[in-house]
Design brief:
This protein is of the alpha/beta class. Helix content is about 25%, strand content about 30%. The longest helix is centred in the last third of the chain and has 21 residues.
């Protein structure tokens, strides 16, 4: 029988770690939002009003690259197979801006500091955005239309939207959260201060005769 050699343990540790890492596939990366159409990215921006979407705020515990699930109690767990490609607040901002641009073809939507003063700004504060154990995606947010210089609130609303994920896999979760963001974008467009762009498909809201954007 071969004698046990304790002095071999330190040299075996790196090898065992390499074997363990090789057997675990790396997590897949996911982004929110629908793929952008090439024609949409090539639109001329001059001569159109500019609306700035300020960075979307999310609860601090959600602002991570982990894909989180919440069970029926207050426990939050992270997916072991997938990660967001960027922090959730960044992903939500980018996806919402892209969706708004799709529904507002005559308006330039920007998320950074524009070259010209914006005619309006949009502020979005997400209070809840998570997937439950039953695959139910809940998005609760408050959003404001404010003046271009940010000094006056023109319109304020709160929305609570629910989307059902087909399953609890990372891809299904990302798809459900994307649908919720797109619905929020349509709500924002429908309540736009410009009555000419208030009538959009999906979640319509009656134009309230507010001044143009």
């Amino acid at each position: 029988m071969m004698a046990f050699r304790p002095w071999l343990l330190p040299s075996l540790a790196p090898l065992l770690l390499m074997v363990a890492c090789a057997s675990t596939p790396p997590p897949r990366l996911y982004v929110l939002g629908d793929p952008a159409e090439p024609a949409q990215a090539m639109k001329v921006q001059s001569g159109r009003p500019v609306v700035r979407l300020l960075p979307v705020s999310v609860p601090e515990y959600l602002d991570t690259r982990e894909i989180l699930h919440r069970d029926r109690s207050n426990e939050v767990t992270a997916s072991s197979t997938g990660l967001w490609a960027e922090r959730l607040s960044v992903g939500v901002t980018d996806a919402l801006a892209a969706s708004l641009a799709t529904h507002l073809p005559d308006v330039v939507i920007v998320t950074g500091q524009p070259d010209v003063p914006p005619s309006r700004q949009i502020m979005v504060d997400v209070q809840q955005f998570e997937i439950g154990a039953d695959g139910r995606c809940l998005l609760t947010a408050r959003w404001d239309y404010v003046s271009g210089n940010g000094g006056k609130v023109l319109h304020r609303e709160s929305d609570s939207l629910v989307e059902q994920a087909a399953q609890l896999g990372d891809a299904s979760v990302a798809a459900a959260m994307t649908r919720a963001i797109n619905r929020l974008a349509m709500r924002i467009v429908a309540a736009s201060p410009n009555p000419e762009i208030a009538n959009v498909g999906g979640d319509k809201k009656q134009a309230r005769g507010r001044p143009g954007i």
